Known about the structure:
Blueprint: H1 13-27, E1 30-31, H2 32-39, H3 43-55, E2 60-62, E3 65-67, H4 85-95, E4 102-107, H5 111-118, E5 125-130, H6 133-139, E6 145-149, E7 153-154, E8 161-162, H7 163-171, E9 175-180, E10 184-186, E11 190-193, H8 196-208, E12 209-215, E13 227-230, E14 237-240, H9 246-254, E15 259-261
Parallel strand pairs: 4-5, 4-9, 5-6, 9-12, 12-14, 14-15
Antiparallel strand pairs: 1-3, 2-3, 7-8, 10-11, 11-13
Amino acid sequence: MTIQEDPGRAAYADERHQQILLKLRTEHRVDSTQLAGELGVTRETIRMDLIQLERHGQLKRIHGGAIPVDTASFEPAVSTRTEYSAEKGRIVRAALDHLPDHGSVLIDAGSTTEKLAEIFPGDRELSVYTNTLPIALALVSRPLVTVYLIGGRLRSRTLADVDDWALRSLSEVNVDLAFLGTNGITAERGMTTPDPSEALVKRAMLTAARRRILLADHSKVGVVSTAQHATIADIDLLITDTGLNSADKTALESAGLRIECV
């Protein structure tokens, strides 16, 4: 069925653009289908609106909508990432179901992976490698867990070790399972993060791990950041929350990504 524009509700282009930008400032992401319904126009009209706004540097288009233009390079400190706390809690509890009874695990930097460290069990003989100080400190008191902190330059924004020292350490490590984080996920661009030095370390983690599980809440899906650190094919499983919309889920699964929503 072809969706027709509603002449009684459709706003002029300039008015639509102002409403789109206002919604983007308040919600930090807009969905094309939702905008079309709210503004009484077709999705094609919204698509042309977003293209025009992107050409003027006012937003960045992503699959199914748009994000603020500075999202690709903006990186909040891990300590300030308090949104979606309940969702992240469900994600990390589901992640524990994949934890081996013994062996070795690698835990990436990030707000969700820090929550994993908080509830990490201490009754299994595991060697845990991490490139972030808060995770190492959270795990060091676990009686049967041996913690290895990967060295390198410590980034103040994420408290992650990066650069050559970290890369050399990871080149000598082989682990059974890696729990990874990301700033953005799309079917087209894979996993991305704002900082190129962290992207290099995340890529090295892929090589070091036999199995790779990505832990990310639904707000990361549809976001493209500066530096790619993994493709869809690099990830064995994405654990996310039930806030993931069906269109994004279908796009990712069609690209070959296995998804567990909790």
